[in-house]
Amino acid sequence: MPSWTELALECARVARAGLRIPQEESPVAVVLGSGLGAFAEQLEGARGLPFSELPGFPRATVQGHKGRLVYGMLSNAPVLALQGRLHGYEGHDAATVAFPARVLATLGARALVVTNAAGGTNPSFAPGELMRITDHINFTGKNPLLGPNEDQLGPRFPDLTHAYDARLAEALEEAARASNQKLRAGVYLMMNGPSYETPAEVRMARAMGADAVGMSTVPEVIVAAHMGLPVCGISCITNLAAGISQHPLTHQEVIEVAKAVEGKFLDLLRALVPRALAAVPPRRALA
Ligand code: HPA
Fold first, then answer.
1. Distance (Å, rounded) from C-alpha 210 to C-alpha 189?
2. Which of 79, 196, 261, 266 keeps 20 to 30 A from 155, CA to CA?
3. By mean pLDDT, which of 35-39, 63-67, 232-236 is the weakest?
4. Can you give the CATH number for the domain in which 42 is found?
5. Nearest C-alpha to atom 10 of ligand 1 is from which residue?
6. What total number of domains does the chain contain?
7. What is the pLDDT of residues 215-225, one digit of tens each?
């Protein structure tokens, strides 16, 4: 079995050749959550590779994975975007879920912008609002770094104090002001899913200090921190979490609200990318 390091190096080589990513470039990387795929279509000179052509990515699951790694330019900033992501609830372990983020870091991304849909546990939140992730609670009982440490990538016991980078947080706040958008801020708690939470779990999440709950993002953030890649996280609050809202929660509702918010979310991302590029220094690629 190849190590994650070997797989990430191999995948990065394939991506660099296939997408013609210049070696000296240090792009802004973006993980596009539900309903945000259109962002990748807006990149100039965009070229993409399906996950199925990227070594180390899992073979398509039952539903068939529609996912691509896309490279292109936005306002003169090089961007690497993951259109679609892997989820633990599909049966992947946390290291597999986080592998694409390791590839982005291996390609020399300077910043990782992670986006998702989440349920609001903070009763002052309203569906359709966007939230800057200030910190997270890993409530999955899993960690992508379980197993032997891959010393080439990072330390055995990585610090997560500053996993959500202050410079990128400021860049995001500035992007929100520039695009005239209200931006909330709060703590994201990750559950395994795929069932939504019970009202008691939502009360627990709230008592633990969470403002939003979701089923993604944390594995990617942990491997990014491990590899010294600064992160900026944004949640789209698609619904009030179970029990805060009295009506039953459906995936349909999550998709509909994400769709309705897509325009302003894309505006915010467009405003963020050049600011993120300026906010943090380039990183060196491993492959
Ligand atoms: N819970 C968990 N994940 C979610 C939710 C939720 O309420 N909404 C969107 N993703």
1. 6
2. 79
3. 63-67
4. 3.40.50.1580
5. 118
6. 1
7. 999 999 999 99
